[in-house]
Amino acid sequence: MNSTTLTALRIAHRRMQSLIEELYTAGQTALDNDDLPDASLLQSIADKLYVEAENLDILISELEG
Fold first, then answer.
1. Which of 25, 34, 50, 65 is 20 to 30 A from 58, comparing alpha carbons?
2. How far is CA 30 from CA 26, 34, 43, in A?
3. pLDDT for position 65
4. Nearest Cα to 23, choosing from 3, 5, 7, 43?
5. From first to last of its 65 residues, what are the pLDDT tens digits of the chain?
6. What is the Cα 23 distance to its own chain's centre?
7. Number of Cβ atoms within 10 Å of the Cβ of 37
8. Chain Cα centroid distance, residue 11
């Protein structure tokens, strides 16, 4: 695998992790403010991105190995 491709995948993975953290934080803030619909939406999106980030992490590991 081209090192440029692996670097791009690693960067994308780090950015996804940051976005996931922001979404979970925003979801918790919404929950703290009793805004259950927004909290649920933010949590759901964060959960989906988390799964995709895990898949990307596995792919990166396989490509590196």
1. 25
2. 6, 6, 10
3. 80
4. 43
5. 789 999 999 999 999 999 999 999 999 999 999 999 999 999 999 999 999 999 999 999 999 98
6. 9
7. 8
8. 12
Reported pTM: 0.89
Written as six digits, the tokens of 58 are 């596995």
Copy the structure tokens of residue 17.
Answer: 């992790």
**Nearest Cα residue to 17 out of 44, 60, 46, 59:** 46
Which residue's structure tokens are 């396989």? 62
Structure tokens at 65: 């190995």
